[in-house]
Amino acid sequence: MDAVIKEKVPANLPDKRAHCLAGGFIARYCSITEAYLAGAGKEMRDLFSRSDTAEWKDWQADRVGIECA
Questions:
Q1: What's the whole-model pTM score?
Q2: What gap in Å lies between CA 2 and CA 28, rounded to an integer?
């Protein structure tokens, strides 16, 4: 999943667009299950770390990308 994101998702995108593309590319090149797990895992990590904040809108953007894929 990390390789797909590094290879396919351009840097410096708006946050929600990056979430959408990441979810879609993971679903396309890995699996839909892995895309859902990656999105949920990222938000859980954000929830319990100080580096970022978990956002419902990020999870929604992930799901939009998955559905689009």
A1: 0.89
A2: 14
